[in-house]
Each structure stands twice: as structure tokens, then as C-alpha cells.
Task: structure prediction
Amino acid sequence: MADPAIDLLRDLIAIDSVNPSLAPGAAGETEVGEYIARELRGSGMDVEIQPVADGRANIVGVIEGARQGRTLMLCGHMDTVGVTGMQSPFDPVQKDGRVYGRGSQDMKGGLASMIAAAKHFASTGSLRSGRLVLAAVIDEEYGSLGAEALVTKCKADAAVVGEPTDMKIALGHKGFEWVEVTTEGIAAHGSRPADGRDAIMRMGRVLSRLEKLDRELQSRPPHPIHGTASLHASIIDGGRELSTYPDRCVLQLERRTIHGEPSHCGHAEVEKIIKQLGEEDHEFAASARQMFSRPAYLTPSNAGAELTNVIAAAIARKGVQATTGGMSFWTDAAILGEAGIPSVVFGPGGAGLHSISEYVLAEDVLTCRDALIELASEFCSDK
Ligand SMILES: [Zn+2]
Result:
């Protein structure tokens, strides 16, 4: 399939932009950002380079319509996860309607659709009113430094985040919270059970309660957009040597949250488990702390309905039946939403995000581009 948007996608994949916070020494977003800035400027757009951190910068292109109107933001991240185990991650192979390579689906496919939509307006001067903002941000795969910096500088009346949704119009997604639990024991020679207290066995008690809690969370009535909350044990570390009672065990877990749950709910649940275990066994010693949390996001219903109607009509003309719902993974839409920019998540289909064989469907990239062009024309017109 030959189309300038697919050429653009292939160029984006060919530029290594692995997030340097995930893999020390990785390329980062600088080169891909320079490429995007050149593309946008080349089509006549005003481009701002927004320095964020450590020489890393967001790229923001702006197109002004002929008359006043509303602002639509198209937001996508430039960074990708690492490439361990991939044969040729930066070689954009196109085969059977698919484009392969690291970041093809997450989310250089969506980014290519958004850049191509913006270039359409910039090169034709056809944005009748309002303003279209194309924001290519850094660091979504780690700390979302890019989106956090973006919302301090850019405002919009609505946004589309082009993460891969398989063409579903996503009206929100779950949040997450990371919690660290430490159980304490007493180190002693393995032959002296009267002296030793086993921190790993104590963590076993915590783990069995967590497993029960997870089952309970997943059996609650599902939220219509977010489904059910859940948790899993992610990383565990403890023990010193075979013949010694372990004095310490550390567990890091992830709690996935849904709308309405407080930002510290996972931490509070773990504290409650520790308290119960302490009441059952006065020697039991453990503590917990929250490491990080990001809220769930729910698109405000009015904005969600308006954006959905236009996108659904646009993709229907390409023979794609629109579906709505939520995504399980967290996105920058939560940061835009918290900053007062109602956002939907909408992007192409494919498979293998974060795995060793990743691809995006070329046809979907073009359908997304066309839908975003229709959306910008409709939304930015003065109302
Ligand atoms: Zn992504």
C-alpha cells in the first residue's frame, strides 16, 4: 500500500526512539522529534520545541483556522519500549497489509495518522476555523514527563490520544498504583529455628491474602468502561543464603484501579492486610509504602459523545463499524483529562505491542488519518 502516511510511518519506525529511562543509554526521542519537526515545518506549520528534561523535548505543531473556533489536540508519544530479543526492530518491513517494527503499533502508527492529518490541513490551508494542535510527546512509556509538561503550556477543548485501540473509540481506561511491601524476620543459622524468624514465609501470608483480595476485586460488578479492578505481584526479593533465615523480603505489586477508587486504595488494602496479620500473630512485622500511582480516566460524557459521533461516522464511510468502550492500559489521556482537556483514545489495530514481533495494520493507519481530518474539520468549526 503506497501512501505518504505509510512512508512517514516507516520513517518513524526506522528511527530508534527507545525510552532512555527504560534502557540506560537508549537513543531517546531527540532524533525522531527532529524528524517530526522537519515534517511539520515542511508543510507550513508553526512548530514549537518544548524542552522537558535531560535534553528531551516535546514537538508541538499548531495550525490556525481562518476564523475563531475550538481547539482540537492530537496527542501521541514518540518513545518506544526496548528491543531486547527483536531481530531487526528498526527495519520497517511491510507485508500483507502490515507494517512491522518496534513502535509500529505503540504508537508510531497512531502518530503517523495524526501527523498526516495535521499535514493535510497545513498544506491545503483547509482548516476553516479554530485551531489544530499536533503534540508529539516524550516519555509515555515511563513517567509521562512529556504529557505533564505539555498541559502546562497547551490548552485545548478536546483531544484524541492515538494509542492503539484496534479502531475502538475508548472513553477511558484504568489507572494503576504501585505498592512496596516489606516483611521483617530475624536472621539466624538455619539450624536454629528457635532464633530465626523467616521473612519470606511471612511474605507468603501476605501473598495469600493478596491473592484472595485479587479474586474479590475481580468478582465485583464491572464498571461499564473500566471493567473490574485487579492486582498482581510483580517483583519479589528476599533471602541471603541457603543456610540462613531471611531477615527481609520485599514485594512490589501493581494494583489496577477503576473510576471512583481513591489514589491510595491499593496501599490502604495492603495496610489492612498487614494489620490483620499482626493481630493474628503479634510477632509478625511488615510495612508498606506507595511507590507511584496514576488515576483511571473517564471521558466526560458530553465530549465523549460528540467526538464518538464524528469519528464513528467517518470510519463507517470506510466500512469500519465503530465500537466504544474502555482500554485496560493507562495512557496520557488521563493527564490531559486531569488538566481539563476531555480526551478519547483512538488508534489503529495491530498486534505485539511491547513484544518481539510488533505490527500495525496499514489500512487502519489511513482510516485513522481520514477520521481525524473529519473530526478536526467538524470540531474546530465555531460553535
Ligand atoms: Zn503507547
